[in-house]
Amino acid sequence: MTPPSRALLTLGLRLGLTLILLLLWFVMTEPGLLPPFFFTSDTQAAFFFGQPLRVLQTLWAWIASGEILPHLGITLVETMLAFVIGTGAGLAVGLWLALNPLASAVADPFLKALNAMPRVILAPIFAVWFGLGIWSKVFFGTTLVFFIVFFNVYQGTREVSTTVLANVRMLGVPKAAMLRHVYLPAATSWVFSSLHTSIGMAFVGAVVGEYLGSSSGVGYLIHQAEGVFDINTVFAGIVLLTVFALALDAAVSVIERRLLVWHPNAAGR
User: Fold this and answer.
1) Are 12 and 142 members of one domain?
2) What are the two backbone dihedrals, phi and then psi, of residue 12, each rounded to the nearest 5 degrees?
3) CB 198 within 8 A of CB 145
4) Do 81 and 6 belong together in one domain?
5) From CA 146, how far away is CA 162, in angstroms rounded?
6) CA 89 from chain center: how many Å?
7) Model confidence pLDDT, tens digit, residues 130-151
8) Residue 173, Cβ density class (10 Å: 0-12 exposed, 13-18 middle, ≥19 buried)
9) Most buried pick, 82, 101, 196, 241, via CB within 10 A?
10) For the chain, what percent of residues have pLDDT higher than 90?
């Protein structure tokens, strides 16, 4: 099977599976279509799981009125700031500790302790420190992104081929040039291998922060809907977040392909 044919087949199967899941959701939650199984009434399923048509109506109302755009914009700003700050900090600290064995040995137990900490407990602390604006969500998302990037950069820098390093040193290459032409490319390839996870965690940090305490954002809308048991609006927010997350992941894939054209693929190896 040629690559274009395989891509079309994959796309078709994905769309087919999506339609099957939506149809199953509709049939199981539309009163009167099926007798109740788990629930005592055929309306209880709709109460707990929402109804796809009403979810779509809510989404369309958000988009048509433009109500959702400010909330989406705030969530996007929080996500991108957390992603950029967390990635930059993880790259810098990972390179520094990988190239400084003494500092690495000293910082190792502290980094492990911070990484083991359930970071969701930091969200209310950041809300107290930085208020309910965007910065409490940005710093919370940064803590999620930082360790993913840090450990990848640290490991990638330490695994640079000793043969390459020996040859570079024999040629008398200065340390600054080694950092630019040897360590940074090695670290960058590891960073891009974790970008999909990093952007996802930045997004999670922004939404969870909004959910726990905010006055705007998609997480705020979901929290408000849950407070009045509006399950259709809750699912509308979840669908919107899912589409948004997939769009961010696709954007990361495009950037990755453009910036890592020099990196061999699995078949090339």
Assistant:
1) no
2) -65, -45
3) yes
4) no
5) 27
6) 17
7) 888 888 899 998 999 998 888 8
8) middle
9) 82
10) 4
Task: Quick: pLDDT tens for 9-35.
Answer: 888 888 899 899 888 888 877 776 666
Residue 161: both structure tokens together: 């081929």
Domain termination site, one of 49, 66, 88: 49
Tell me: do 85 and 36 sit in the same domain: no
Locate tokens 């087949």: which residue? 9
Q: Quick one: pLDDT at residue 142?
A: 92
List the structure tokens of 121: 């407990």
- The four Cα atoms 50, 52, 55, 59 give a dihedral, to 10 degrees, of 160
Q: Which residue has the tokens 């609006």?
A: 233
DSSP 14: H
Looking at the structure, tell me whether residues 89 and 212 fall in a common domain: yes
Which pTM value belongs to this model?
0.77
Q: CB–CB of 218/241 below 8 Å?
A: yes
Taking CB atoms within 8 Å and a gap of at least 24, the contacts of 250-257 are: 252/195, 252/196, 252/199, 253/196, 255/195, 256/192, 256/195
Which among 40-44, 67-71, 192-196, 265-269 has the top mean pLDDT? 67-71
Structural domain including 39 reads: 1-49
